[in-house]
């Protein structure tokens, strides 16, 4: 009797190296863990985090990247992964595992176990364990102090632009991004658009930056997944402080404002609330700056007053915690009221 | 601005005690782990593992119980939980958390983190960490040897009968099970049916039995989730052995054969392949027996020959690895072909 799940497990034990072979096969993965560990879990569900028809292999890559970004935010070094997968029968589960494999290898990680179930739509939850690096500290949301400078580890809004492009028909096929002709983008815009789609689908978790932050005497960080404004509020609230953010300092990709406008979006709004940036927002004491190769950008400073102000050319204005909240009805209505495409691609 | 997810996290930190308050709030849960740990992850998805309309609180209880059963199988003592929840907006996520809480408390566990996302149907993935108890060994599937006796920790098929009853309209409401009148069951049958539904919805993970097995010089075990026959094959395959199982020895609940027949099911088939028993199947050296209060039943013995035989009154017959395989198309067809209700309730 051929058994699909058994086949998959056997394939997995063959394909994921000796440690996986040793670990996968019992009702639980049995690990010897010494020291300090960071655990995180995050899902990718069709129709919520990615559109139907996305390549299962790409989904595997994205699932890993999104989870690694959480480990990056606390300064952890990834070590183990557990996968809980559900999908309709016949869905190519192996492809998702193939998508996970290169990233696991690159980070020296081991797939230690998981669970397979049938389900109405493809969805996967990954749980990662990362260790505290030698001589590293945990980076927490609570570590920001008045006077600190705020930094962002990469472009804001680019991923959200990529998501909007996909909602309008942009596709990823065999590593190439195609942009529908009816969007009528010029050559330079096309390149910007392709980069945005790629960035949306394959975020680059800032693990080295996270480790670097963990080596500082003091640092605070959060993974930007639900939008800069909302996640900034989370960081500040955890630290009991406020902030001033300089609108013009917010880093965006070359050609981003133009692309956003072409998509009918306000560039600043997309940068502040688009979400799924998967770069780090962090606070460092004044005078401490990350090395230039991290390409991080200073965007403001932490204040004692527990308010969040956006400093614009027209003066300061309050910056509310808008962004993607998975349980907030009014957030959704707000977005929908602005005529956004119905396919949203949130995550936390 | 009110934020649903923030509200939920704040409520969670208030309601789940000081350790959760400390742990929840960063991008990853930060734990100090020393020694040997078992990690397991398991999902419950509406329409797959439970019917639409099931109480979210009960779902929380079931989700925890099913995951604890995996820890029981390796002899681990539960310690931490991470929850990845996805549900349509407006779904009462707090109720699921309320359902988790008593079980977490009872086992001295800490909810250490998680993730909330919107999704097309309610679904939840729980990841548990359990530690190896002092002076305990891990119990693995690989530990069975020729000559060992096979044991089962509880009734087989009862949960599957409960699932069939729910597919025919049995309901759990505020802790009470109602059986539809059109099933036309007699009084004694009704009691059996109610117990079956309760057992299906709220399995009792055999953690003490698992720990006891871990204190033996040698033991092998597997959690019976996909059906006795399939999981038995998994255990034997991992150990490189075969077995003889005595059909008449398989433990079933009082009144079970009659109830199964009333449901149009062959009692033996339901016991062998129904699945979701969430009791332990284990192997112990001859002469070693679990204490009587575990109510375990000896069901056969392990053989050197790598075949699995079912000894019936009419002689031996091969026992194929039938049961629930989440990826095996033909399994589903087989079941459907026999006129089973379309709501199946599998899990692993």
Word description of this protein:
The structure is a homodimer of 348-residue chains. With 348 residues, chain A is α+β, with helices and mostly antiparallel strands. Helix content of chain A is 34%, strand content 24%. The first copy, chain A, contains 11 helices and 14 strands. In chain A, strands 9-11-6-12-10-13-14 form a 7-stranded mixed sheet, with helices on both faces. Chain A has a 4-stranded mixed sheet with strand order 2-5-3-4. The first copy, chain A, has a two-stranded antiparallel sheet with strand order 7-8. In chain A, a hairpin with a 2-residue loop joins strand 7 (171-173) and strand 8. In chain A, helix 1 crosses helix 2 and helix 3 runs parallel beside helix 4. The longest helix of chain A is centred in the N-terminal third of the chain and has 19 residues, at 56-74. In chain A, 57% of the residues are buried. Residues 327-348 of chain A have low confidence and may be disordered.
Biggest interface pair, residues each? A-B, 87 and 86 residues
Q: Mean pLDDT of chain A, rounded to whole units? A: 88
Distance, first to last CA of chain A: 41 Å
> What does the main sheet of chain A amount to?
7 strands, mixed
- Sheet with the most strands: spatial strand order of chain A: 9-11-6-12-10-13-14
**Cα shape of chain A:** globular
Instruction: Tell me what portion of residues of chain A adopts beta-strand conformation.
Output: 15-25%
């Amino acid at each position: 009797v051929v058994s699909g799940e058994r086949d998959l497990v056997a394939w997995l034990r063959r394909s994921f190296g000796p440690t996986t072979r040793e670990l996968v096969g019992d009702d639980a993965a049995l690990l010897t863990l010494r020291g300090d560990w960071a655990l995180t879990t995050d899902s990718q569900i069709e129709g919520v985090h990615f559109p139907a028809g996305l390549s299962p292999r790409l989904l595997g890559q994205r699932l890993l990247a999104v989870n690694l970004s959480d480990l990056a935010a606390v300064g952890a070094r990834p070590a183990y992964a557990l996968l809980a997968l559900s999908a309709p029968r016949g869905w190519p589960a192996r492809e998702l595992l193939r998508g996970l494999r290169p990233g696991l290898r690159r980070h020296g990680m081991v797939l230690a176990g998981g669970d397979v179930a049938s389900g109405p739509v493809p969805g996967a939850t990954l749980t990662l364990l990362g260790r505290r690096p030698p001589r590293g500290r945990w980076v927490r949301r609570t570590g920001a102090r008045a006077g600190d400078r705020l930094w962002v580890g990469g472009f804001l809004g680019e991923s959200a632009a990529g998501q909007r492009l996909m909602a309008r028909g942009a596709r990823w096929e065999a590593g190439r991004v195609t942009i529908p002709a009816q969007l009528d983008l010029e050559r330079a815009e096309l390149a910007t658009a392709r980069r945005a789609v790629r960035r949306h689908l394959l975020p680059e978790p800032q693990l080295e930056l996270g480790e670097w932050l963990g080596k500082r005497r003091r640092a605070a960080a959060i993974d930007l997944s639900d939008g800069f404004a909302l996640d900034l509020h989370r960081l500040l609230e955890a630290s009991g402080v406020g902030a001033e953010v300089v609108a013009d300092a917010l880093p965006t990709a070359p050609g981003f404002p133009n692309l956003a406008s072409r998509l009918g979006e306000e560039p600043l709004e997309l940068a502040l609330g688009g979400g799924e940036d998967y770069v780090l927002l962090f606070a460092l004491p004044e005078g401490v700056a990350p090395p230039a190769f991290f390409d991080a950008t200073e965007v403001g400073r932490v204040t004692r007053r527990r308010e969040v102000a956006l400093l614009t050319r027209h003066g300061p204005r309050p910056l509310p915690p808008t962004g993607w909240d998975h349980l907030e009805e009014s957030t959704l209505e707000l977005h929908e009221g602005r005529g956004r495409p119905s396919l949203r691609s949130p995550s936390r």
